[in-house]
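Thread: quick sanity check before group meeting

JM: Hey all, I'm pulling together slides for Thursday and realized we never actually wrote out the predicted structure for the chain we discussed last week. Dropping the sequence here so it's in one place. If anyone has concerns about the input, flag it before I start.
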Amino acid sequence: MQKVKCIIQYDGTAFAGYQVQPNGRTIQAEIEAALKKMHKGEVVKVIASGRTDAGVHAVGQVIHFTSDLDIPLNGWKRALTAMLPADICVADVDYADAEFHARYDTTGKEYRYKVLNQKEADLFRRHYSYHVPKPLNIEAMRKACGYLKGEHDFTSFCSARTTVKGDKIRTITKADIVVEGNELTFIFLGNGFLYNMVRILVGTLLEIGNGEHAPEEVKDMLRAKDRSAAGKTAPPHGLFLWKVFY
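JM (edit): ok, ran it. Output follows.
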């Protein structure tokens, strides 16, 4: 048996999320269906670094599975690519140590969120960026990012529907905004992220950019440890799981 590790990319637009569910098309189900064909009907369970919601995209999602097939690495990539739908791509394949675990061995993740900040919407970017027509105060949002860095209890920036048990303390090592023309890319690196955390962070920063809150209010939001203290949840289609670290 060999443990196979893959970096996969997907356009989340037409998916109900990563994880298999009874009703709805999912990334995990598509990959497991392809592997089942390759293994002549045998069920192959796929483990990912984490779940992504409906509409969320991935550039660097990591999965692993075990297989008894003797296939060279380029053969794995070629075979999976041929069997997977056009909105899932295998970017890289490697063999992993027997102890490797795509979920439990992660040391951090990078997420990016794209905002199109211009008056008119762009038909061809509507699935990959959140359209915000009003002008935004970039410097105010960047100042607020500074208060998010470091170790904090992010309860206020976690969905009330979370199933996380234990504390909600996480460390953000990078919170930044890159501006290219009318596109803003919010970049977050951290040792872990709570349910909807990045989307709530972006929603809150956009409210600061709109002048609804002062940047300094982020400190009060963190102290409150209450979801109602932070801003709205930004929609899923601007979010990309960019990279997973091990």
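AS: nice. Strands lie at 2-10, 47-48, 57-67, 88-96, 108-116, 130-131, 150-153, 169-180, 183-190, 239-245. The chain has two domains: 2-96, 110-241.
JM: adding both to the slides.
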